Amino acid sequence: MSEEHKPRVLFLAKVYPYPPAVAGDAVYSRGVIEAMSHIARMTVLCADSASEHQQPPEIIWHVVDPPRAGRAGSVLSRWPLIAWKGATRSYHTALDQLLKDSWDIILLDNLGTAHALPKVMRYRDAHPGMRLVYVSHEYEYPMRRAKYDSYAMNWPKRLMAIRDLQKVRNSEERLLRHCDIVTVINTNDIEPFRLVAPGRKYLPIPPGYDGPIVYQRKITEETPRRVLILGGRRSEQKRQILLEWMVAAYDRLTAAGIEMVIAGDMDETLSQQLRKDYPEATVLGFVDALDALFASARMGVIADTLGGGFKLRLLTQVFQRLPIIGLRGAISGLPTDRSAGYLDAPDLPMLVNLVCDTMDDLDRLNSLHNRAFADCAAAFSWQARAEDFAAAVSENPKRVLQ
User: Fold this and answer.
1) Burial class for 88, CB neighbours closer than 10 Å (0-12, 13-18, 19+)
2) CATH number of the domain encompassing residue 167
3) pLDDT at 398
4) Claim to verify: residue 310 and residue 268 sit in the same structural domain
5) What range does the domain containing 325 cover?
6) What is the DSSP annotation of 232-273?
7) Does residue 391 surpass a pLDDT of 70?
8) Residue 217 falls within a domain, yes or no?
9) Does the keyword Glycosyltransferase apply (predicted)?
10) Cα separation of 402 and 384, whole Å?
11) SS3 label, residue 10
12) Same domain as 169, residue 295
């Protein structure tokens, strides 16, 4: 497609999606933006993430002031905390200027951009034919309800959480009802979304994978009896998930001679707490390249007791052939069968048992990573995602809209 015939697309993101923004939502946003840049003339508006701004040259970036800090100021806002943080004066000044231009498609990425919905709806009213797309990352309301319910809070904080949860629900439902197309990472979200907004078009956009690929691997007796616990731990929810796993697993795994390695971005306070309370565990913090670490372990554990949706670290484990063992419900969206491509357990004590029982079953471990790789190899192409999106917005959706 020639450059002049490519649609003009405005992508409204939360933050500049390059390191140090390394959470799953930033990684997914970056993948969508870069994939779409091959089929559209892309302009992105986002808040600063303290990155060095090494952006792809074919994308026009408008990077404004960082998101707001804290949370108390969101109480009087109409927006939930995640959107209030990004609803800054500089973001809306830039948005107002960009909406003076001509766009074929505007995308609202993540619930965090819900604050821009009223303005882009007015823009659509004034420009018939422009398509408005909500890029969902998960079904936010039930996920945040479970997260807030799990926190120990005093009554003032609990009341703030209840109020924020209602604003999450209202904002998410507005996005679902007022956007022309809603993209989903996990097709499991389509049914509950359709209960809220039955008239919308839903487009599955599972994440692509463009990281390192290990085409062959054999776990042997020489492979260390090691499990990896991966993922950033900056949020309260993710810290809690890790600490619950350590309470459940550390003594049992240590007694069984199984080493645990914890890798992922975390603050120094958490790092020191882990080293003090669990001296036999190895705490690495953020690791830029995981290849050697994956090759030195027998399995990766997904112990998320909170939060659902598709976890991007699953793809890294699949394509670098690290067998996946986790909690039931925490592994979702992979086109491979449980018990064949991964193993799961219903609760943390049983997950610990499963890790211990499987650690020395080398045939099982090799079968797991081989099956997961074979089933997923052709399913996670960013190019295919971009082609599906182009077909959907051109009103030639074929089989991509549901």
Assistant:
1) middle
2) 3.40.50.2000
3) 47
4) yes
5) 226-376
6) ---SHHHHHHHHHHHHHHHHHHHHTT-EEEEES---HHHHHH
7) yes
8) no
9) yes
10) 17
11) strand
12) no
Closest CA to 50 of 66, 34, 72, 74: 66
- In the predicted model, what is the mean pLDDT of residues 119-126? 98
pLDDT of residue 232: 83
Amino acid at 364: R
Sign of the four-CA dihedral 240, 244, 247, 252: negative
Residue 398 to residue 392: CA distance in whole angstroms: 8
Look at strands 282-285 and 105-109 and give their pairing: unpaired
Domain annotation covers residue 215: no
* Mean pLDDT for the stretch of residues 308-329: 89
Helix or strand holding residue 230 (H, E): strand 226-230
pTM of the model: 0.80
Alpha helices in 45-189, H assignment, sequence order: 81-84, 89-98, 117-126, 140-150, 155-178
Shared domain check, 41 and 21: yes
Higher model confidence: residue 198 or residue 25?
198
Single-letter residue type at 62: H
- Residue percentage of the chain with pLDDT more than 90: 65
136-156 per-position pLDDT tens digit: 999 999 888 877 777 777 777
What is the number of other CB atoms lying within 10 angstroms of the CB of residue 234? 14
The shares of helix, strand and coil residues in the chain, as percent rounded to the nearest 5, are 45, 15, 40
